[in-house]
Amino acid sequence: MECQSVTELKGQPDSPVIELCGLSEDCNPTTLFPPFFEEDVGVPHIVSLLSPLEGGGGVPAIFGVQNKYEPFYTGGKIQITNDGKDLFCGCGNKIQVLDIETGQCKQFIGQDEDEEVSCFCLTPDNQHLVLATKLLVLRQWKWKEKVLVRTWKAIHVAPISCMDFDVTSTLLATGSADSTIKVWDIDKQYCTHNLRGHQGVISIVKFHPNINKLQMFSAADDYKVRVWNLRTSACITAIEVHYSVVTDMCFTQDGNTMISGGRDSIIAVWDVPKLEVKKTIPVFENIESVVLLPEGKEFPDLSVSTDSPHVITAGSKGTLRVWDVNKSRCIYTKSEVLGRATDTETGEQNITQSFYSQSLQTLVVVTFDHNISLLDVNNLTLQKHFCGNTDQVLDIAFLGDNDSYLAVATNSEHLKVFEVATWSCQILHGHTDLIVGVTAHKNKKLLATCSKDNSVRIWQLDNGRVHCVAVGHGHTHTVGSVAFSCLSTKTLISGGQDCTIKVWEIPSKLSEEEITHLHSTITEKAHEKDINSITVAPNDKFIATGSQDKTAKLWNVKDLSLLGVMRGHKRGIWHVEFSPVDQCLATSSGDGTIKIWSLTDFTCVKTFEGHDSSVLKVSFLTRGMQLLSCGSDGLMKLWNIKNSTCASTMDEHEEKIWALAVNKKENMVATGGADSKVILWKDVTEEEEDKKREEMEQIILKEQELSNLLQQKKYLKAIGLAITLEQPFRVLNILKDILSQPDGASELEGTLQKLRMDQIDAILRFSGEWNTNSKHCHEAQFVLNSVLKSHTQEELMEFPNIKSTIEALLPYTERHFQRMNRLLQQAMFVEYTWQCMRTVTDKSQTQSNVNVTETSRFDISRMVEREVSKEQKSRDVEVIDMSEDDDDDDEDDNIDEDDNIDEDDNIDEDDNIDEDDKEDRMLDEDDDDRIFKEGDDDKDEAVIIPSPEPPKQKGRTNMADKKRGQKKKDKLSKKMKITDSKVKDVKRLKQLPASKHMKKKMKKQRG
Predict the structure, then answer these.
(1) Ordered structural domains, the chain, with CATH
(2) What is the model's pTM?
(3) Is 281's pLDDT higher than 90?
(4) Alpha-carbon span 763 to 233, nearest angstrom
């Protein structure tokens, strides 16, 4: 989410209320607040208040993680490798591997889906690690390669509580809460023994160091120590010497003596060959661990000689005791706790485990609060201390000359001081309740803490060790914040839930031997609710406080007189901070905003919005031109005051960030949060710019190389380079270029088959993007088809992104398939429509031909009728009228020659003509008068018969003429027979029903 721009509140009607206390209306506030940096301080006042806010500016910075502390141990037993380099600790569902030299977690063993690890064990040869989960699953790892060798289900019916390997790294014994012990052969991978006999949870199992004896010792909640013969799987003996749970066992080098310790405050010395107890030694504390010192070696500082075995016991009192086994007495006692204030009573710190590391020559001690200490075995002095789990980090401060230490207040009464280089930790005891706040003086030698025990303490750093030198009592409730004066070490200011401010005077000389008791010089009730933050101005003249009552107040240091109240936040104020160069104050609040206030008139100058929840800390950077903030949303934000923008947002914490500290040079930032993480941030602006510049140069070179490859048509290398550049659409264009060639499909298939497996995985991933667009889906489907044809299912399943690729391809592929089906159906419908149109056209053409034929027949009948009429008019008087027509020759019977019948006058389809009539209408081929020829389907052609010769006039006839006339009559009679037939046809046609248009036209002609 982008941060919103800063809101200018000055001059707006809803501006925060400004309240001046103890000042007249006509006073000038600027006379009360001189510049923070005066000439006598050595730093001149260079700019006015609003210059950096409106006219100045700072270069945007980018902070990257330089180092990180994370929880690595949450409980259980720990182990160290034989070479002393790595430390194995259980942390939730994983085993963290800690580099002892650097204090950093180098790797973890386990799987995310595993349940919490209940127990683990490292083989003596350091090759394998076996862990057991609460789901009764055993996993065998090659931890150096981080390879899971084997996973099998334990036969136990309850969680595994303890494990141990024999000296050959072959046999593994597991003890469970189901009262059984099982022995596993991890090489041959089967269970060799199932030992029953104990009652209750198995607390410890130990193989005898001499493998030839094949014996195993165990103990459980029945307080009995049992010895098992692994050859016969029988219990040799069960001795009840302890009266509580046995927690540890150790063997001498020859294996003839065993020493056991338990929570009954005794240690027992066993004669192993005789399987009996030689003696018991009271130790007066619950024992958790018994460590046998190396035999044959003297430890003068511990008063240890070589004439007797010596053991170190550790338990509930948190002390280490050295015992002479033969003399049954304690010869040396050492408290493991360091940094304890001399005014506090000796408190108990339960030690849960201790063991000896031969390679490191150290004694490893683990406490109940997940702290791991490495002690020099010669004198039991602390070498390194690791904090396995800090819980919530509430406050943090840089300490030391080069800011080489970090003081961390956690959800504990103990103060932790980390060495930044190695994360080695000092545990400082003094407070009796949770430490709420911590702050360091600018000289980086003094440290102040405040606690829920209503006290403040001052600690001093000397030669890498921190000691409590002063304590102040006087508050009636939790002290929430403390602050040193900036220019001297004379004053300490504190405030808390009792709503009061106290000014403490610090003596000039502080001693570790005798803790100084501080005295409050001034006490003032400051707010109506809890005081969350106190800060002192750079000139040591003013104090600013922030409270849950939503106000920030400015006070005079000398008499704690109130100078002004700044109101405007909608929720409680968590932190206040003075600008290092200007007369302004920054406040952060639970309303998610940061405000900058002018101290000349107490107005809100700017408001920064961007956090999603409460802003818990705020600090100035780059000489007051930038702000750094952190909040409950787990984000750290860098703000540019000049242009009122958020320069960058850093997200590394998983929960709210309570603590924020900046070193002297302002190039390193430390944060701590509720996720138990402490993160060191470094200004990496220049490095990031150089990195981006190099990346841009590389991209330009590769782009040029890609263009050259495309020009040279080296498509295989071009595709590989485009995949390297993560340019999916560049790859798409290359594929289109290949497919556009004459034999592109086969060439593209061959090119795809030559790609590496990682390149095929990438191009399949690209296909998922192409497939979302119908314009590019064909290329995507081509690639998918080619890959599926050329690779087996097993090969495809090895692709790291195959699952996400299939999920991306599947929905759009189905959508494209449905779309193609619809297109296919539409194409078939077009074909179907075309076929239907052709059928209709053929029928229409056939009907048209029938209509033309009927029209031709009607025209023929009219022509015949006209010819007959002409013949009758031209006959001679002597010619006998052979016509069978009635005598009254009506006009209706005559049709003029010029009467043209349009195509519209065709006989209707319903006018059926018999086949006999059709045959009668056909003229004989020998007829010379008329010949009718029926042409093609489109037209009919008629041939006109020539008219007969006119008859002779009356009175001129003779015999020859009579004969000639008779012949003509015979001939004419012959012709008339044909004509009569035609006339009958005409009459028959006239009897047929004519169309309305035809009747109308004939009536018009008669009229």
Answers:
(1) 1-65+526-657 (2.130.10.10), 69-307 (2.130.10.10), 690-789 (no CATH), 838-1006 (no CATH)
(2) 0.67
(3) yes
(4) 60
